[in-house]
Write a structure and sequence with these properties.
The complex is a heterodimer of chains A (278) and B (81). Chain A is α/β, with parallel strands linked by helices. By secondary structure, chain B is mainly α. Chain B has 3 helices and no strands. The longest helix of chain B is centred in the N-terminal third of the chain and has 16 residues. The radius of gyration of chain B is 11 Å and the shape is globular. Classes of the chains: A alpha/beta (278), B mainly alpha (81). Chains A and B meet through α6 and α8 of A and α1 and α2 of B.
């Protein structure tokens, strides 16, 4: 009689399943704690947007000071939330090379394996700008928090490109997830050309951030309660700077295609997440 | 004021320069998406470039219904009036 699938000897199964084979790292605590994190994020977003940010909004008539204050609030809240998630034990994270982020005119491009990648990046960079999915400007939890920050929406290509170009040229640091949406698990990232185009229009430097989550969690179409058997570890690693200058020799559409190809292979070289040791 | 032929010439030059296409490919009937493989991000570059060529601030909203090269030439012609 064949053994049930979950009893199969570990040796006969691929490495990925082996590390998922047993519930560990306080699974039965992490499950409700993960739910709690979603509640805390939702409430935090509402409190921030309705009680705290209105102070930033009405504290001054100077729009850019208003934005700086709002961004500092959002960033502090996200930094707190990252610490909260680590504190109650639903994840661990490490951030390598963070001192090279936040330079004027810097375009930060990151891959997007999970729902919460942006929390680590924005939490670290109090004044960074960020291209945010248009739907989040309409979402009840995030809407009011986002409106006062001056973050850029990806509503139309034209608006996004020009707003991002202006932000970089005025010396802001800008975070983008060029995949446009979370990476489909176990596939290589596919980058949209918008980020490369924006980089050539306005960035002083392009800095990739490679994000790994081991074992994978909070990926697309995964409900919150399907948590991994082991506590996930987020590893954020700042890559070497990419100089946009050589790509500016060609006309923008040609140069941005070349840059996008090169950025794509940078992210593909980091390898699919499942092949990494846990 | 430029004639439609002059506008077409400038538009063709711009497309050839930006996208490294052969001038023969840029016919009035050539469709941006299907024939010239110019997508929405390229379109932003092209509109910005034409704004510099014609020394006129243009809003991409005015180009929303442009599908082929002839549409673009007519839109520019209308804008200069």
């Amino acid at each position: 009689m064949a053994a049930p699938a979950h009893r199969m000897p570990a040796a006969g199964r691929p490495a990925r399943d082996r590390q998922h084979a047993r519930r560990a790292d306080g699974y039965w605590w992490r499950l409700p704690a993960t739910g709690l994190c979603f509640v805390v994020f939702g409430l935090g977003g509402l409190v921030l947007g309705m009680l705290i940010l209105p102070f930033a909004r009405f504290s001054t008539f100077d729009v850019s000071r208003r934005q700086r204050r709002a961004r500092a609030c959002v960033s502090a809240a996200l930094a707190f939330f990252a610490g909260f998630m680590r504190g109650i034990g639903v994840l661990r994270y490490s951030f390598e090379g963070r001192e090279r982020l936040g330079r004027p005119g810097q375009l930060i491009v990151a891959n997007h394996p999970t729902l919460i990648d942006v929390i680590f990046l924005l939490g670290l960079l109090p004044q960074a700008n960020c291209v945010v999915k248009a739907a989040l400007f309409a979402h009840p939890v995030t809407r009011s928090a986002l409106r006062s920050t001056g973050y850029i929406t990806n509503n139309t290509a034209d608006e996004m490109i020009h707003a991002a170009e202006d932000a970089l040229r005025s010396g802001e640091c800008l975070i983008m997830f060029p995949e446009g949406t979370r990476t489909t698990p176990d596939t290589a990232p596919r980058l949209h050309r918008g980020a490369a185009n924006i980089a050539l229009r306005g960035a002083s430097v392009i800095t990739p951030v490679f994000i790994r989550c081991i074992p994978p969690t909070l990926s697309k179409r995964e409900p919150w309660y399907r948590i991994p058997f082991r506590r996930p570890m987020f590893i954020l690693e700042v890559g070497a700077d990419v100089d946009p200058a050589p790509y500016r020799a060609a006309p923008l559409p040609i140069g941005s295609r070349k840059l996008n190809d090169d950025l794509t292979s940078l992210f593909r070289d980091m390898g699919p997440m499942r092949n990494l040791p846990s | 004021m430029k004639t439609q032929e002059e506008i077409f010439g400038l538009v063709r030059d711009a497309i050839v320069e930006l996208f490294e296409l052969e001038p023969a490919q840029v016919t009035p009937q050539a469709r941006f998406n299907e024939d010239l493989e110019i997508d929405s991000i390229d379109a932003v570059d092209l509109v910005d470039h034409l704004g510099r060529v014609f020394q006129r601030k243009v809003s991409p909203r005015e180009f929303r219904n442009v599908r082929n090269v002839q549409d673009l030439v007519q839109t520019i012609d209308r804008l200069q009036q």
